[in-house]
Amino acid sequence: MDTDELIAALAADDTPATPPHLVRRMLAGAVVSAVLMAAFWGIRPDWIAAVQTAPVLVKQTLPAVIGLFAIFMLAKGPEGRRSLWVFGAIAAAAALAWGAAMLAGGDMMGTSVSACLASIPALAIPMGVPLFLGLRHRIEPRPARTGTIAGILAGAASATIYAIHCDEDSAAFFLLWYGVAIAACGLAGRLAGGRWLGV
Q1: Contact between 115 and 170 (Cβ < 8 Å)
Q2: Rounded to the nearest 10 degrees, what angle do helices 113-135 and 143-162 cross at?
Q3: How many domains are contained in the chain?
Q4: Is residue 26 assigned to a domain?
Q5: Rounded CA gap, 190 and 178, in Å?
Q6: Which of 198, 192, 166 is nearest to 58 (CA)?
Q7: Which of 38, 43, 120, 138 has a Cα-to-Cα distance from 32 of 20 to 30 A?
Q8: Which residues contact 34 (CB under 8 A, 6 or more apart)?
Q9: Rounded Cα gap, residues 58 and 66, in angstroms
Q10: According to the UniProt entry, where is the signal peptide (predicted)?
């Protein structure tokens, strides 16, 4: 087998990253991110009571649901990674909910937009780095797309952690700015994937 044939064979490898593999890659980073959040951002004092209300429950669980979709897509291998429309559908539903929240007089700006936009990507780094290292175990046929999903996964997990600190409970705020921050992580993942996950 010559070099060209070897590269072609590696590129055709569609062995999926198994869910346990992905979970192991994410858990250590998630612990680091959670510890950093608690140490430097702080846990919201009334979080236990607040998360029992509908807006805070949505703020806490929606990013987690997005992350679970991302894990599922990565675990299915390259074939499963073609379905980015899932994230488009979630974004469209969130946009409709955001519009309804704005019509109801929701506060879009709050007092911590800049902190939110900086914190979620920052807390995503301890999870994103080991995740990308794990995805480098083989050649990815569509590295930018895989990187996008991995970035969204890290961003969504980070938003779930950051929500334990955040006291901005307006749906108009968190649907918009959490969404922007997660999308930024996805874009960073796309750029990183195209550079480091390809042939």
Answers
A1: no
A2: 130
A3: 1
A4: no
A5: 18
A6: 166
A7: 138
A8: 161
A9: 12
A10: none
Q: What CA–CA distance (Å, rounded) separates 150 from 88?
A: 16
Which domain, by its residues, includes 165?
A: 36-196
* Residue 2, amino acid: D
Q: Which residue matches tokens 């490898």?
A: 13
Tell me, yes or no, whether 48 lies in a domain: yes
Question: How many whole angstroms separate alpha carbon 48 and alpha carbon 161?
Answer: 14
In degrees rounded to 5, what are phi and psi of residue 166? -70, 130
Is the residue at 103 inside a domain?
yes
What span, in angstroms and rounded, lies between the C-alpha atoms of 182 and 176?
A: 10
pLDDT in tens, 88-146: 777 777 778 777 777 677 788 989 999 999 999 999 999 999 999 888 776 677 888 88
| Segments in the chain below pLDDT 50 | 1, 3, 6-16
